[in-house]
Amino acid sequence: MGVCGYFVVSWKCLVVLSLRLLFLVPAGLPVRSQGDSQSDNKVMENITVRQGESLLLRCSQGIAVTRTAWLNRSSILYAGEDKWSVDPRVSLVVLNEEEFTIKIVNVDMSDEGPYTCAVQTRSRPRTTSVHVIVQVPPKIMNLSKDLAVNEGSNVTLMCIANGKPEPSVTWKLLSSTGLVSEDEYLEIPSISRQRAGTYECTAVNEVSADVQTVVLTVNYPPSVTEGRDIGVSLSQRGVLQCEADAVPEADFEWYRDDRRLFSDLDGIDIKEDGMVSMLTFFNVSEVDYGNYTCVAINKLGSANTSMVLYEVNEPTSSTLLQVLPITRHAPLSSHHFKGLHGDSEWKWILKPRSSARWEQWHHGNASLDLSTYYHRSSAAAEVLMQQILFWWGRGGVRGWAVGVWGQFN
Predict the structure, then answer these.
(1) Is the link from the previous residue into 165 a cis peptide, with omega within 30 of 0?
(2) What is the maximum span of the chain, computed from C-alpha positions, in angstroms?
(3) What are phi and psi of 165, to 5 degrees?
(4) What whole-number distance in Å separates Cα of residue 6 and Cα of residue 13?
């Protein structure tokens, strides 16, 4: 059937026929400006608009204009004040003797292409053509999912993005500085645990950027820190500690010789806190002293370390402690006290710095340098006192240490 049917010819049909005859090539082909002379045709510069924005199409008129229309390719959008487009986004803004302007809101890629303003004057037709370019912000369409691999594996991460202009894609490991890759595919051969972390893919063009992340987990077998021997007196509390680095986190097992130990048996407690496991003796007895082994295990392997719980002997009750008086304004650079145990005389020398620190311990002609303990906590100081100085009761040692430090603060 023809444009206007077999028998009934409406006014709109006549307009369509006249526009096609006067201004347009056959329907379905790109519009080209036509007129009696070169001055009757005007090609405007391209209009660039971003997806989602509004587009205004303006066309100058004149007093002698009898008919006017805006077309997209061969489709009429507006013929004068009559809207022919069924698209609700298209509307008439201005139609007078000076200009003919229409508006398209929420522009999309389908709106890109040539637009023609066709004008019929009393003497001849003329056209104004413009090409609309729609820019689209980048969007990451295909991204690798979070991934867990074993150390030494080959890894490929993918990040595919669309947009107009075509976006550039970069990869970055967030825990390091600098770009890792400037390609849609990130290749990591024989991955190490240091390359684990969150990888960020960024797609950028002139419009904006799209950023998404991938978490890459690298699994590896446990490695344990060398165990530290601990000295504890009878009936006191002792703690052996084991630390392991592993992904996934390691499970811990404790052994005494070949026998595995469990919590709530024989007065011990085993607790795990992330990378650390602690074996606690609440009331150390003779049978507790000896060698202990900690084993860290995950699905990729195991590692172990051994440590010794040994006895520290208490001095007899005849041990005397004498602390000489000291004042904040005393011009002394050191302070002395004596601990008497039998015929042995011990002398502690403290030299005030930012606070009082252990400097040297003398026993007869022997000297032990304790300067390496400057930054130890009071808890570490207490352990040191138990092992290499003398024992005046756990509470007494702690109270004495705090009191001396307070004098120099």
Answers:
(1) yes
(2) 135
(3) -60, 160
(4) 12
